[in-house]
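Moderator note: this is an archived Q&A kept for reference. The question asked for a predicted structure of one protein chain; the sequence and the answer are reproduced below.
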Amino acid sequence: MPFLTLSDASLAFGHVPLLDHADFQLDPGERVALIGRNGTGKSSLLAALAGQGALDDGTVWRQPGARIGYVPQEPPFDPELTVFKAVVAGMGTTSALLAEYHEVSHRLAESDADHEPLLARLHTLQTELEALGAWQFESQAERVIARFSLDPDAKVGSLSGGQKKRLALAQALAVSPDVLLLDEPTNHLDIAAIEWLEDLLIESNVTLLFITHDRRFLDRLATRIVELDRGKLMSCPGSFAEYQKRKAQMLHDEEIANARFDKFLAQEEVWIRKGVEARRTRNEGRVLRLEQLRRDRAARRERQGRVELALDAGEKSGQLVAELQCVTKRFGEKTIVRDFSTRLMRGDKIGLIGPNGAGKTTLLRLILGELQPDEGKVRQGTKVEVAYFDQFRSQLDPEAALIDVISPGSDYVEVAGVKKHVISYLGDFLFAPQRARSPVKSLSGGERNRLLLARLFARPANVLVLDEPTNDLDIETLELLEELLQDYPGTLFLVSHDRAFLDAVVTQTIAAEGDGRWHEYAGGYSDWASYQQQRRAADAADKEVEKQAMRGREGAKPVVEKPRSAPTKLSYKDQRELDALPARIAALEDEQKTLTAKLEDPQLYASDPQAAQGFANRLAGIDEELLILLERWEALEAMLTPR
């Protein structure tokens, strides 16, 4: 029996139908990803299925007795509740008992508490909770609170937006639901928390319906993809890659069918305009068919266009963008950056990885010269023009009109040498002309991100700083943004929890190692994760050898040899040097061949003995350079070879 069924559902905002007689069914054990462009109605559909929103027409059926957890994008909470009370609030009668048990336990720990009545009440609460079998709920609540790094006694009103999202996830997971409805669950979570959430959802075997733009999260969890497109729901069993192939074929078939329809309609319009012939033949059936064709064409909803992204890198910065030498930064007793050195060059695309609160923003501000180190030295390059994308969208005035955000005081913007009217430019980011004077506060989260990108790209910049740019963006826009950033000739700093986005865009990664230590790696997130796995395996092997050696010293014979350690991961600079060595050696060898051929000409010594001597000296220098480069290549390759 299905958990949820949607039948003949219709829902519209204004004149645009978000659901157009749509049907859907969620069966036990499924993990369904609901995808679609921003503004198509995914969140409204999820809310309707959860019983938190109404349909204009149609029905929603929920299996009686099924526990359904729902996490919206912006979860509402009573600001006066503690985190623990908020998490257990969805447990019915049990929630009040658990909340009181938690409070009484804390009061007993106070030295001036009246212990006897508190102990008596604690005993009563324990008896009632045991009768309800509620201890598993308490342990689950405490576990998810701890894993999401929340303080159980903190007031909800004191939490940040990201902490409230983690609180909502904790609340939904604490009741061990049969069905979980999640709206963008990865927003505001760091990578470690996302991977933990993936593992938990897979191991729990909970039935899932979730909205996400995180392709790695989607690929790992989804057993079926459902797309909401122009009011209809299209289902595709299998992975996201399979869905993409099927979708491409469907769009191709739709384009061909629409072209045939339009051609036939045009032919019928020509016929009806002949007037006299149409009246003479009195083909009323053909006239009626034409009227129906016109109605069908008017009702056809075209697929929404793609975002048109263009980025002006402006004037080139100097070759050096920033250099940090033994930089340390503290806030109070906490060291955020400890003895970190790096050299960042024009064209580098750097991803910053680390848990929330590790200091990624602090490190960025040090690199950009916005913050001075307590120790060490920071040197900025020349001609650096920075554009900053703020994940909290603090640059957007909620009362300002869209056109004033993009081009205050002017009707035009100039991007990459092309001058455009601001309304046309907004159209490139899928904002209709009639919305150009709407206030920012009327936009959804995804639309605000698109507006911030439009503002960012309307100004030339040779250094881009993108702090969580992927939040709320649909997958298609994400892929377009990836392509744009891959071709961007300037320098990029990217803070993101989107692993697929990091892999597609960055060339090097700076990762938090704990205790204020940061380390630089070549490649994206997957390269960093692979190195971490290799290092853990090597550490485990070393510990096993130490155990065997200890047993040997205690009289037992060691039975294992030390396994070969994992290959060393080169630093970004070493990897870049290794990648460049073959071309440098080949160039020297080509020069060597050219000089040798010239020196073999006997006329050279008679006509220009001085040039011949210069060629001979250069040839000797090339031999020496080649020897040095070959030795360096051998040393770098040796670092990559397991021992």
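Archived answer notes: The mean pLDDT is 82.
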